[in-house]
Amino acid sequence: MSVMYIRGGAPLEGELTIHGAKNSVLPLLAACLLAGGPVTLHNCPDLTDVEAALAILRHLGCGTKREGRDLTVDPTGASGCSVSEEQMRAMRSSIIFLGALLARAGEAHLTYPGGCELGPRPIDLHLAAIRALGCEVSEDCGIHCHGRPRGGEVQLSIPSVGATENAMLCAVGGTGVTTIANAAREPEIYDLQCFLNALGANVRGAGGSTITVEGGRALHGGEFTVMGDRIVAATMLSAAAAAGGRVRLRGVDWRHLSPVLSVLHQAGCRVTSRLEYVELLRDREKPLRAVPTVRTAPYPGFPTDAQAPVMAALAASEGCTLFVETMFDSRYRHVAELKRMGADITTEGRVALIRGVERLHGAKVEAPDLRGGGALAAAALGAEGVTVLSGLRHIDRGYENLETMLCSLGGDAVRREN
Ligand code: UD1
To answer: Does 114 score more than 80 pLDDT?
Structure first.
């Protein structure tokens, strides 16, 4: 088993280009199934979730080839329409293949995405969207969908990211015009729209609450550059806030980070946002201070994925901060680990009260999930002594070589076989 040794207590200093966004590249990979020729994705991060998506594409008959950060998918030979239970379990967002398979083949056989990392993650909205587009769905020993999608009205009761993406993919392959109301507004949805349009689709409105898709256009191959990962950026900024120092991040749009930057600014960090970079400066002589309640919300609200890293930074601060997690039931699993490092945090249901302590200390901790793992690494850099972080399989799903990223900012982090 690999573990990461992180020595904290020294400031971070340096510049880092943030890699491509996991939450963008996964739907883009599923969308490759709709293309009539090879598609090359630039800035494609090397993550285990990306590998899981590629395994599904190969199982469906696609060719895949990686050269550094360029990934080419050739869907011309694809003929499959089912994803195995093992592949569905490997990655929760494998459900995104549902809409793409229906669009390509008019048929999809999947199982429920497995596990319970953040609490129950139902797929009822995904299935309702697919039904609204005229496909038949049966849930008998798995999910079985049939029918060529046709235009329709998809009304989402919650602006679910995955359901919005599934509806978009399904509608692109259908006939007629589809309207998706109460769509998720995340930047990754806009990235998906840009990608589909680059291949010849006609999708409008992403970034707003109503998306319109004119279906039935044959998509061609092409190339596209994946947007930078705003959550990886938020994690690095949280690490710098915890450790102190000055870091400059490139490759990410600061506007996607606004609510996170605002919290870190209120905590006493100096934030400079430019078109080409975002920079955070924290004076180590001055402790971070508590901030008004941090409430997670769909975009453009404070991202649930940044809750754990920002909490890790505020664990050592002056005063008390409340966090309210509104998106997922089990999103405080990092709290028990932060407490091993000396944090004083109480949770009740969806609320967490952080009583800032002067300083955390190194400890043996385990990443409970992807962003919880990023949070523990951020906390470790601000802590006194060495932290031994296990559970790296969670971290590798969404951070490409986290230890290398931390080292390039002057952090002391190394991965070893234990
Ligand atoms: C995506 C992100 C994840 C992020 C989340 C919220 C990807 C690959 N993952 O996950 O990193 O934390 O958005 O920003 O992009 N819901 C239902 N029924 C459904 C679908 C969702 O009730 O059919 C609920 C969920 O339980 C949750 C809320 O809707 O409470 C939002 O979830 P959703 O936006 O769908 O998250 P994901 O797409 O799974």
So the answer is: no
* Exposure string over 20-40, b if 16+ CB within 10 A, otherwise e: bbbbbbbbbbbbbbbbeebbb
From the CA of 119, give the closest atom in ligand 1. Answer: 26
Do 245 and 225 contact (CB within 8 A), yes or no? Answer: no
- Is 163's C-beta closer than 6 angstroms to any atom of ligand 1? yes
Output the CA 116–ligand 1 centroid distance in Å.
Answer: 13
Q: Can you tell me the distance from the alpha carbon of 187 to that of 200, in angstroms, rounded to the nearest whole number?
A: 20
Return the higher-pLDDT residue of 91 and 253. Answer: 253
Residue 119 has pLDDT above 90, yes or no: no
Domain range 22-225, its CATH number among 3.10.310.30, 3.65.10.10, 3.20.20.70, 3.40.50.1000: 3.65.10.10
pTM above 0.85, yes or no: yes
Q: Which two tokens stand for residue 341?
A: 């490092």
How many residues are given for the chain? 418
List CB contacts of 383: < 8 A, sequence separation 6 or more.
8, 9, 242, 316, 341, 342, 359, 360, 361, 362, 363
pLDDT in tens, 65-96: 999 999 999 999 999 999 998 999 888 889 99
Q: Is 101 in the pocket of ligand 1 (CB under 6 A)?
A: no
Residue whose CA is closest, atom 8 of ligand 1?
23
Q: Which atom of ligand 1 is nearest to the CA of 299?
A: 14
Ligand 1, atom 31: nearest CA belongs to which residue? Answer: 160
Q: Widest CA span of the chain, in angstroms?
A: 63
Give the separation between CA 108 and CA 170, rounded to whole angstroms. Answer: 11
CA distance 333 to 373: 10
Kindly list the distances between the CA atom of residue 390 and the CA atoms of 189, 240, 308, 332, in Å, as whole numbers in the listed order: 32, 21, 17, 17
Question: Is 116 among the catalytic positions?
Answer: yes
Range list for CATH 3.65.10.10 in the chain: 2-18+230-417, 22-225
> For 2-18+230-417, which CATH superfamily applies?
Enolpyruvate transferase domain (3.65.10.10)
